[in-house]
Amino acid sequence: MGERQEGRIPHELSTSRNIYNKGNAQETPQFTSACWSYFRFTGDISFLEEIYPLCKQGIFDHVLVLRDRDKDHYPEGAGMVERSGMGQEKLDSTCYLYKAILDLSQMAVALNKEEEATQYTNLAEEIKQSFNADWWIESESMFADSLGRNNSRRLDGHWIVAVPMEVGSADREKGARALERIEQEWVNEWGLVHTKKLEERVWTLPTGVLAQAEFNYGNVEMGTHLIGNIARTVEHGMLGAFSELIPEGGDFMQLWSAAMFLSGITEGIFSLEPSAYQDRLALSPRLPKGWGVARLEGVEVGLHTIDIALEREGEGGYRVMIDHQGKVGLDIELFLPSVGKPAWLTEEVAYTQELVGDLTMFSFVLEPEQRVQITIGGTR
Description:
The chain is 36% helix and 24% strand. With 380 residues, it is an alpha+beta fold. The strands form 6 sheets. The chain has a 5-stranded mixed beta sheet. Strand 18 (351-356) and strand 19 form a beta hairpin.
C-alpha cells in the first residue's frame, strides 16, 4: 500500500484492500522503524533489500518534501493525537522522524551503503540538536506537544510529551526533567492520561510509550508498573484480549496493547538488542523489586533460539542463565550491575569483561547447544 502512495504509509485499510485513511505524518517514519526492528530480529537480508527503497522514498520523498513545507525537519499535519486545536507541527511526528532516519542509517550500514548511512546519521544529529532548542519550554520543564505559526511552542497537555524520551530525541537532562513532571502530573492509578486536566482516560498505547521511556531512563519500577496496568485489561472482556483503555473499554482487542506489553518485557525488563544478521545479541536484564525471577523462553534471533532466566542471588546479586540453540555461534554482550565480583559457573565459556558506566559488560560466544550461567554479587 505504501508503494501505491509513493512511500506514504496508510493509517487504515478496509478488508477489501481499499485505503480508508491515507496516513498521518508519523506513520511513515514508524513504518521504517518497524521494518528495521523486524530485520534486527530476523536477519532477513532479502526483506531489507526489498523494503529499503520504499522506506527511503517514504522519508525523503513524502515526509521531508510533502509534509515539511518550511523545510525545518518538523513534519506538518495530523499525528497520533486526533484532537483539534494543536499547531501544525506535532511532537510525535518529529520524534519518530528522527528515529526513522537513524534506523534508515542502520539499514544502509547492513546493506553496505556507507555513504548513505553517514548522511542519514548526520541529518539525525542535526534534527536532534535543533529539536532540543526549538521544542523545549524551559519554564515548563517540558517539550511542546506542537509548534504553531513561526514555530511558537504550544503545550496542550497531550500524552505525546512522553515520546521524546521513548525514542531518544531528548537530551538526557531535559528528558529526566520531563519524565519527573509527567509522573507527577500526567499519571494516575492506571497510567498516562490522554490529556492532562481535560481527558483523564488512560489508553494502553500512551501508557506503553511512557513505560518504554521509563525503562530507557533506568526507571525499572515505574516501567514495570505501567506494563502491569496494560496487562490488567485482559481481566475484562474476551479471554486473552488486550483492550485499548485501562482498566477496560474501547476496542476489545488491540494489537498495540499486546505489543506494548511484550516490548515492555523484551526491550524493557530484559533490554534485548538483537542484531541477527551479525549473529549478535546485547542484553541488560533488570529485575524489578519484589520479583525473584524473570524468564524469557524461545526467543528467536535469526538462526538462534535462546532461553534467558534472571534470578536474585543473595543480597543485591544476580544470576543469569542463557541457553542457546542454533547452527552457529552467537556473540553476546551481557550488561549487569557492578555489585560485586562475578563468579562464572560455566568454566568452558571464555569471556572478557569491562566496566561500562555503572555496569559490567561480559562479552562471550555461545556455541550451538551451549548454556552459560553467571553470578554477580551475592554468594557463589
